[in-house]
Write a structure and sequence with these properties.
8 strands; six-stranded parallel β-sheet; TIM Barrel; alpha/beta; single chain; 11 helices
């Protein structure tokens, strides 16, 4: 499936005037590893959707799933790193942050017997130094909590989401965007989501948009919040709606990050080739002018500086 995805050429922004259908994906992130994640997993399986579960080894705020349950999750879904202790990483010194990041990768891989490719910053809090530490640890990408982003991530280590399954007010959405300087997200909140506070409506509008324009409809949730607010019926409706849209392909975060990395490298290589071609063409033009004496009698071309 990933090979088929890599045959597409997504841009960071949807094309404005083109007859080519841009690829459209739906991703689901489930954070914190609460025992209620197993109910979310059952719903995802029912509708044939993919997801990435971000599980810390321990969480001081609430219990996490047992190792046996994590192994069961990993047979059907992507399981990503969420640090060892669910500590906001900017609060730590560099060596402490490194231990949390690299330590959780080693722990997951030892437990599950497979590579851990995805990472999620606790509470979405990160900076450039932390981004680089996650890359150094060997993860393919990392997810943040920047909202209302429906495009392929420009940087797979600072990937945002479309919708948080929680009823944020307009004031909270705007303040959150301004604090994070997430102006693209703020624009999307106004023009695509029409500033709705209801997360079901919010994500349906994202699905509508991505189905037509391409991009990534990315829902992020905490199962414990769904349980606390008794919103399992709402989550069921959202999953059913996403699954019925056959133009939108389910994708894990690991696949999304790999795809974004491959496409970014492809675009970088193309830019390098074009720059080399332009330089070569400019040199040929200079050589031609010198030989024809366009700026005066031809005297031959010297590549050395004049004495």
């Amino acid at each position: 499936m990933l090979d088929q995805m890599l045959s597409f050429t997504p841009e960071c922004e949807p094309a404005q005037e083109t007859t080519i259908r841009m690829p459209a994906f739906v991703a689901v992130s489930v954070d914190d590893g609460h025992s209620s994640d197993l109910m979310t997993a059952d719903l995802l399986s029912k509708f044939g959707l993919k997801a990435t579960f971000y599980v810390p080894r321990q969480n001081p705020e609430r219990p996490v799933v047992e190792p046996l349950q994590m192994r069961e999750l990993s047979t059907a879904f992507d399981v990503g790193g969420h640090t060892l202790s669910h500590t906001p990483l900017p609060d730590l010194r560099e060596d402490g942050a490194w231990n949390e990041i690299r330590g959780c990768k080693d722990w997951l891989e030892d437990l599950l017997g497979r590579p851990a490719t995805s990472f999620c910053y606790p509470q979405g809090k990160h900076n450039r130094q932390l981004r680089n530490l996650v890359a150094k640890a060997g993860f393919v990408g990392a997810r943040t909590c920047q909202f209302n982003l429906n495009f392929f991530p420009r940087d797979p280590f600072q990937a945002g989401v479309s919708t948080h399954a929680f009823p944020h007010s307009v004031a909270v959405q705007v303040r959150h965007a301004l604090l994070q300087r997430n102006f693209r997200g703020l624009h999307g909140f106004v023009t695509i989501n029409l500033m709705t506070a209801d997360w079901e409506t919010h994500f349906r509008r994202v699905l509508d948009y991505v189905e037509i324009n391409g991009g990534v409809a990315h829902l992020y949730l905490h199962s414990w919040e769904i349980q606390q607010r008794n919103e399992w019926d709402k989550l069921t409706r959202v999953f059913r709606d996403a699954a019925r849209r056959k133009q939108i392909v389910p994708i894990t975060n690991g696949e999304l990050f790999s795809l974004a990395t491959a496409k970014r490298k492809s675009l970088d290589d193309a830019t390098l080739v074009n720059a080399s071609f332009d330089s070569s063409r400019a040199f040929d033009g200079t050589l031609s002018k010198s030989r024809t004496g366009e700026n005066g009698p031809a005297t031959g071309l010297s590549l050395n500086s004049p004495d």
